[in-house]
Target: Metallophosphoesterase
Amino acid sequence: MYDIVGDIHGYADELELLLAKLGYQKKNSIWQHSERTLISVGDLIDRGPQQKRAVDIIRAMTANGFAKTIMGNHEFNAVAYYVRDKNGEPLRAHTVKNRQQHLAFLNEAEAIPTWYHEAISWFKQLPVLLDLPELRVVHACWHPTSVEVLKDYCTDNFTLKPSYFKQANDSAHPLYHALEVLMKGWELSLPEGVSFNDKDGHKRDKIRTRWWLEQDGNYQDLAIGVPDVSILPNERVPSSQMPGYDNAKPLFIGHYWLHESAEAVSAHIACVD
Ligand SMILES: [Mn+2]
Model:
């Protein structure tokens, strides 16, 4: 049996409380259960007060067969922030904004360089998705076309081959776009001429979506993070513009702060963030 946990984001105390509540026990400093396996949907890092501990707990569980973990957009970005191309440039620019988003992790990791290096090596080999006999797990969105693209750059267990991290961060490369969908979700272009200002005042002509809705939705139903949805067209979005889900297996995702507690967002999809 599996227990699926949402984005941990450096909250190790809360993770341990949850593990204890689920009946896991710490033996030889590794959390474990005799009958159950934990699955993390990714985003172990950034934001919270116990970055290293959160990683170490899940990493030890995973190494000993008590957990499975996939890559979230935060682990992906952490790798790109650390890894440099052959010219010595980081794959993810060290801008003020990028450093700020990653600061809780960097403050702990940069103080222990050997641990930082090991953590990045571990992040690099996390699978982007799990397709188990009984269920699927991906950080943000299951999109068959993106899964197919990913296969060309991965090992059999959906781990990115190390030589492709540069392409994975190149917006001109199909791998970049596949990973954007799988780890950050489905974006939808608004009709010609329609835009809105996001919470930071930036003009946007795309929306993040509740891509899992089973019935065709209009732009207002589908939008996430639009301060005032009434400015969006009350117009049906053709299903051809959405990823759909084949409902072949239950799917578990994280990533989205939906304010509701973890629950099924459609008959076949649950968001556990
Ligand atoms: Mn995320």
